[in-house]
Predict the structure.
Amino acid sequence: MNTSPARTALRESLDVERLRRDFPILHQTVYDGKPLAYLDNAATSQKPKAVIEALTEYYTRYNANVHRALHYLGEQATARYEEARGKVAAFIGAPGVANIVFTRGTTESINLVAYAWGRTHVGQGDVILATGMEHHSNLVPWQILAKEKGAELKLVPVLEDGTLDQAAFASLLSSRVKLVAVTQMSNVLGTVNPVQAMAEAAHGVGAKILVDAAQSVPHMPVNVQELNADFLAFSSHKMCGPTGVGVLYAREEIFNAMPPFMGGGEMISKVHDDHATWADLPYKFEAGTPNIADVIAFGAAVDYLSAIGMDPIHAYEQALTAYTVERLEEIPHVRIFGRAPERGGAVSFEVEGIHPHDLSQYVDQQGVAIRAGHLCAQPLMRRLGVPAVSRASVYFYNVEREIEQLAEAIRKAQHFFGHG
Ligand code: PLP
């Protein structure tokens, strides 16, 4: 029997078998009776019953538009929608609800910053500093902005071990830098970046920092005030909530100094024939009818995670990730990308001689859902010297036997494809 430190740590942490019962989707077999092992959590997470029920409850009991309805259902919907905002604010340690804008997801949150803040605060000759490990959603908006404004976009290089080159970061910082855009946890390498220190350095040259927290907020305790983040973006669907909801956190004075992103209903104070004034925060940035049901169900997801606790979730995932790395490393001809000392549960790898798409299709037939491709990080793929990778990514409801199922499926694939 395996008695590795990773396995011992797992045994001592969460009661995962109990938690798994909250997720109906996990308990099924696929194809010809293979138990499902869902290891594609960095793409999207599964939803517990409490979240699914919150959606049903909204549509069966109090569906109504928010903020303007002067009737019972409208008041119920508004109260629950705003409660969700309060839960999110508390979850990330924001000073208040004025700091929390609901969007469609991380991508929209970052684009909101690029359009509303970027267009007014970035100009000719300025520098936007991103990194070589950003997801396209924290890179392409800056490319568009830089081109439009005649600004320069520079990338902090990624070192061999999958960490950011902090010396290069320090040397790239100057008074021309207006924004540092960095992921807190890489969706490819798993690397957790030292964003708190990077925020301090960015602030030292008068730049703002935007933290892409799409992979961090779901998996570890995150406190925006401790990080000293100016902007922080994440998505509900990666943290047990529904799709179609995201969050943009910003410091209040920054939100106040930004023009609106979209114009329309809800975001105004007074509208005249030829001009309008804006609503208070956060409504200034929420034009039109929001995604009411999904925001409320996102509130249920935040409750669910909070009840378990982000510290135990993080501890369990650390152990399960270590276990995953151990199991994969035992397989000949498997290479793992990223060796950062501080890392999360996205484990990318290649199996020599088998294309990642073929591998993921093969292991899928064995009931194991992993991801393959460029993972929306083409510049990083180029840096790694591969067109694509395979990625297994865990969440707190995953268990060792699913990792073993993955390892077994990879060995079978090697046999099937005649490699290894
Ligand atoms: N940033 C990172 C690090 C991600 O992993 C993802 C999604 O995979 C995103 C941003 C984009 O999130 P969404 O598609 O929910 O907008």
In short: DSSP finds 15 helices and 17 strands in the chain. The mean pLDDT is 96. The pocket of pyridoxal-5'-phosphate is lined by residues 42, 105-107, 135, 137-138, 183, 187, 212, 214-215, 235 (CB under 6 Å). The radius of gyration is 22 Å.
